[in-house]
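dude i think i finally got it to work??
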Amino acid sequence: MPTDARMLMAVRVVVVTTLVLAALIIQYTVREVLPINYLYTTAAITYGLTLVYIGVGQLVTSRKINLAVQVAGDLVVETFLVYFTGGLDSPFSFLYLVSIITASMLLYRRGGLLGASGAVILYGALGDLMYYGVLPLPEQSWFVPTPWTSSRLYLNMATNFAGFYAAALLTSYLSEKLKKTSQELDANRQNLAELRALNQNVVESIPSGLITLSPDGVATFINPAGCFILRRDPQSVIGSPVAQLGFYAENEWEHARETLTVGTVVRNEKQDVQIGDELRTLGFAVTPLNSIEGISSGYTLIFQDLTDMKTLEAELRLKDRMAAVGELSAGIAHEIRNPLAAIAGSVQVLKKSAALNPQEQRLMSIILKESERLNKSIADFLRFVKPQEKRPAEFDIAASLAETLELLRNSPELSAGHTIEGEIVPPTYTIVGDADQIRQVFWNIARNAVQAMPDGGTLRVTTFVIADRYNIVFSDNGRGMTEADQRRLFQPFRTNFPSGTGLGMAISFRIVQEHGGRIEVSSHEGAGTAITVSLPALARVRNAVA
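look at this
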């Protein structure tokens, strides 16, 4: 049974029961028999019809039929009540309007007109039967009948009939307008909910961070991407001034607000923003946030982590510089090397002359030594600008790394104050690549780490496999590097050591790049350096050897 049909039955039973209880109270209070037996009869009819409505509701699921049956029953009960209380003189004829209004509200115009027609038929039939004496006035009626003329009868009927239909039309009109408005409201509410959900999904799905700020610059909202970039939870961000979020200092924010009053967007980029334990580069833009009425309600701050992008840009610039240097300098290196060989050969011949005194012999030795050093630099440079063709093959990179560290431990470059620790896990691992070139990378990075600890220290080398990549970390506790030193670490002819050529790290960078890997640097001045070499694991892991 429909909900509104059950509600209508409940209201009807409550009203009738209340009237019966009130009548009983009045009768026992007055302490005399009152002619209200018709009220009990009407109540009994109502209760009986209620049982009928329940039965109809169990058999018929149609809402309209259930409501129409109840309205028809109410009209019958109201007709009985009008008859018992004086017929045409009864003051209860207004109850027809209650049923008509109920039908108009629940069944709209058609239901209201049918209810009005039912009331007209029942009331008109009752009036005619009583006027012509076919139906006598009940004996217990409180109302004294008055003589009715035909004109008075017709006027009464016309007035009531007009009222019935007017109530039906007016109520059904208002009910239909209310229904239409309610449907539009539901549709708008649904559209608003969908739009709000879409807006929330968009805000939560965008990879950029989004923070909304109040006019005072206090954060009022942050999306999940923003929490991920800043590595903070929403509770720690919301309510914080923008100056505490790392984007602006107090005076910078005031200047940005002044700029926003004449412009639509303020873009900026900030380096070395403390995010967790790291320094990151953030790019962000601030725009005014207006309400629907166009009134300023704050600002939106959209930001991205540009650290990886800046790293890629630096690598691309480095590659471009390397290519330019290589193309320009390869020919020059060849031209220098040929006369250098002639000079070295001539000096060797002159050095054998017996006519030279010790001072001249020493000078000749210096020339030969510097010639050899220059020739080595040129050879390194040629390897850099014109690297040898790769000869890829399967080899055990873990064993190659262990051999390189063992050679370094026995190298004369290592002083008594230096210690090399290795934690190679797994102890054997096979990849595809040029074993000689990879070994050269290990040697160059390890030698650089030792040279960064002139007063001694520990070089710790650890390995691990993650996401199908073999990673080697070279960590020293030497003097570390500044930001500027880190940016030029892989540039050719840039060295931080007096005896270096500035090509070892550049060559290592190129070799790792050609093998599909990458090199990452983490260093703090005075606190040491960690260089991570990551190479793709193109083959399988062998069984570990104890």
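The radius of gyration is 49 Å.
im so relieved honestly
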